[in-house]
Specification:
This protein is about 40% helix and about 20% strand. With about 300 residues, it is of the alpha+beta class. The chain has a single domain (about 25-300), classed as DD-peptidase/beta-lactamase superfamily (Beta-lactamase, 3-Layer(aba) Sandwich). About 45% of the residues are buried. Residues about 1-25 have low confidence and may be disordered.
């Protein structure tokens, strides 16, 4: 009975409203520059959220409004990849086969399938495109196959309360569409990458497959821009470092989450910024701040 009461109390506490905090929760000395850089963005009016956790000890290294929900653009595609990978592990027939692209799946922006002649691709290849280039067309075709409801159910089963893939990818969003492709909290995204690294998302095979897809990610323009890695080839260890990450970018949104291992230690991280994208200067300030976080991550693990 005591255990039931504790579970109910914890659930109510997690789901209850929280007051945003523009301060770090006992930041490690290594991350003082990150706290300063992100704090300056917050003082300028941006919404900032960050979470960094030592992968081996579970120690929180940086926590800035880590539980608030912010738009995360394409980062929510990770949840789709988890569902696809789980179906492949379960040998569910919906996870196999070759899928066709149709006019209703068409969408622009990120991805290369829209520029290819191939009208059909295997499910695993589509997931590879999503991991490598955040391919929007491949995302929509996979979503049509597995269903957004299944992705949401899988997300809830992982215990994620503030992170969700809300919709398929659209060139424009009307009043009847979800206002964002995805949302998330930095704390949950950092936990998700840590759980993937430990093989705890569904099971070790499912987690490993998702990490394999994401290891192809070619966007190192945000936090990971500080690591000096080759954007097109960084699946292996480079100067003792190994990175797996996912980014999300939209008008007024920059977000990145990942896991990084170096010679000294390993960590998981997530940083999201929602800002007034009024000009190139505002955008560059956000990217500079995220790069500063990357330098602190690099110093910690190397």
């Amino acid at each position: 009975m005591t255990e039931v009461a504790y579970t109910r109390e914890r659930r109510d506490r997690v789901r209850g409203p929280r007051t945003p905090r523009h301060r770090a929760a006992q930041p490690a000395e290594n991350f003082a520059n990150s706290f300063t850089a992100l704090g300056e963005l917050a003082y300028e009016g941006a919404q900032v959220s960050a979470s960094v956790t030592d992968l081996d000890t579970g120690r929180s290294l940086l926590a800035i409004d880590e539980r608030i929900v912010l738009p995360t653009a394409s980062i929510g595609k990770i949840l789709l990849l988890v569902e696809v990978s789980a179906r492949l592990t379960e040998r569910d027939s919906s996870g196999y086969g070759i899928l066709d692209k149709t006019p209703r799946d068409a969408v622009g922006d990120s991805g290369i399938w829209q520029h290819l002649q191939a009208p059909s691709l295997p499910v695993a290849d589509l997931a590879t495109l999503v991991g490598a280039s955040s391919d929007n067309l491949a995302t929509n075709v996979l979503l049509r196959q597995v269903g957004l409801h299944a992705v949401r159910a899988r997300t809830e089963s992982l215990g994620l309360l503030r992170t969700a893939l809300l919709d398929l990818v659209r060139d424009s969003r009307g009043p009847d569409d979800a206002p964002q492709l995805s949302v998330g909290s930095a704390a949950e995204l950092s936990w998700l990458f840590a759980a993937l690294a430990r093989g705890e998302v569904v099971d070790s095979l499912t987690s490993s497959r998702v990490l394999g897809w994401l290891s192809l990610n070619s966007d190192l323009s945000m936090v990971a821009s500080a690591f000096g890695l080759d954007p097109l080839s960084h699946r292996g260890v480079d100067h003792g470092m190994l990175l797996v990450n996912k980014t999300g970018a939209d008008s007024g949104v920059r977000s990145e989450a990942g896991v990084m291992r170096g010679p000294r230690s390993a960590l998981s991280y997530a940083v999201s910024v929602q800002f007034n994208d009024s000009g190139i200067a505002a955008r560059l300030r956000v990217l500079d701040a995220m790069r500063t976080v990357g330098f602190d991550l690099l110093e910690y693990v190397h």
